[in-house]
Design goal:
Length: 388
């Protein structure tokens, strides 16, 4: 019973300890849950259990209000066994100084302990640089970190990325949003990630540009990303257009030998549809691919497809508009290049249906859009012809 007014007897504490030793995961939602854990109850629990309230806890997830009573609760649940922590702090009318205080306190309690850390807050770093400073200090003290996810948090300074990459030698996954920075600063972010090129397997970035004058981005502007030689999963949500030449995709294939999942979300200009053939040629091991392809461009014929994807399971055509009269040609291309069993999805105005949490999530992104039944029927018909 977590009600603030509950009274626990000695017998109740004995039962609690017996149960507490078995608890390995804790989730607390102060934002949506009508019940709260009172600070007084936590103090009483700590007095009765000096070795820790949940001594074998391995994972915690906190959804907190910045002006709520639970903001300091995470400090009471940091046993030596803790490996995974997720914290989201919703904004409110109170001062945000309490958020840096929490992060500094956690830095002391959790030095070099976490393997997974997820953090988000409704407070913008632009209005509270103290949060960014405290977060950098916390990350500096986590040399065992394997996964870092920062949904609902906007990085404005590449130093945050540098801190975690310098401290965490075994970092395998980095997922975050970099906010309102130039191409050069975005290149710095990618350069910092390249420091962990031997360990990183997953990089998912949302980049918001500093202004409309940036123009489209090219692979040479993001050259450090090619140093991620062990990468398996890349998602880039770019705040501008992306210009990809055949040579660029060739370089990707030569650099990312083990890549199995690729998402390229960008503004206009879209990637010419014939580049899909180039992706199949140079990244044949892809299992998932999503990108803005210009489906009004030339559709390559079967004779123009030198090789096909070997393992592709999902292809998402972001914001695709396929004219009805082009469906037979598109269906034939997809059968030849992808095979019959690939899940083909199209979306409309993907940016309007996306938020950072969906983009950074493992599976939610692949549920966007719909399967065009007419296109699928034509693909099945073509496959029956080719299979004879």
């Amino acid at each position: 019973d977590l009600h603030p007014d509950c009274v626990l007897t000695v017998q109740s504490w004995d039962i609690f300890r017996s149960y507490a030793r078995r608890v390995q995961s804790l989730t607390y939602d102060e934002i949506n849950d009508p019940y709260e854990i009172s600070p007084g109850l936590i103090l009483r629990a700590l007095e009765a259990n000096p070795g820790g309230i949940l001594p074998n806890l391995r994972a915690v997830s906190w959804d907190l209000m910045i002006n709520g009573s639970g903001l300091n609760h995470p400090l009471a649940f940091c046993p030596p066994s803790l490996e995974r922590m997720s914290i989201y702090i919703a904004d409110g009318p109170s001062s945000v100084e309490s958020v840096p205080r929490l992060l500094y306190s956690l830095s002391t309690s959790l030095t070099n302990r976490l393997k997974f850390f997820e953090f988000g807050t409704g407070s913008l770093p632009t209005t509270n640089a103290a949060i960014a400073t405290a977060l950098n200090d916390f990350l500096r003290g986590q040399d065992g970190l394997v996964e870092l996810k920062l949904p609902w948090y906007e990085i404005q300074d590449p130093s945050t990325v540098s801190e975690v990459c310098q401290a965490s030698l075994q970092l395998r996954a980095f997922c975050a949003e970099v906010y309102h920075i130039t191409k050069d600063r975005f290149r710095e972010v990618l350069g910092a990630l390249a420091m962990r090129s031997a360990s990183l397997r997953c990089v998912r970035l949302i980049w918001t540009t500093s202004g409309s004058s940036e123009g489209p981005i090219r692979l040479r502007d993001m050259e450090p990303v090619l140093q991620l030689s062990a990468i398996e999963d890349i998602r880039l949500w770019l705040g501008c257009g992306l210009e990809l030449e055949v040579r660029d995709i060739q370089q990707m294939g030569q650099a990312w030998k083990g890549l199995t999942s690729l998402v390229l979300l960008s503004k206009e200009p879209d990637i010419p549809l014939p580049r899909l053939v180039t992706f199949a040629q140079w990244l044949p091991r892809l299992q998932q691919l999503a990108a803005h392809f210009d489906c009004s461009a030339h559709i390559p014929s079967a004779d123009e497809v030198p090789s096909r994807f070997r393992s592709l399971q999902r292809l998402t055509l972001l914001d695709a508009e396929i004219a009805y009269w082009r469906l037979p040609h598109m269906a034939e291309l997809l059968v030849v290049i992808c095979g019959p069993n690939v899940e083909i999805r199209t979306t409309e105005y993907s940016e309007g249906n996306l938020n950072s949490l969906t983009f950074l999530h493992d599976q939610e992104l692949w549920k966007l859009g719909y399967e065009d039944l007419e296109l699928r029927a034509r693909m099945d018909a073509f496959y029956r012809v080719y299979a004879r």
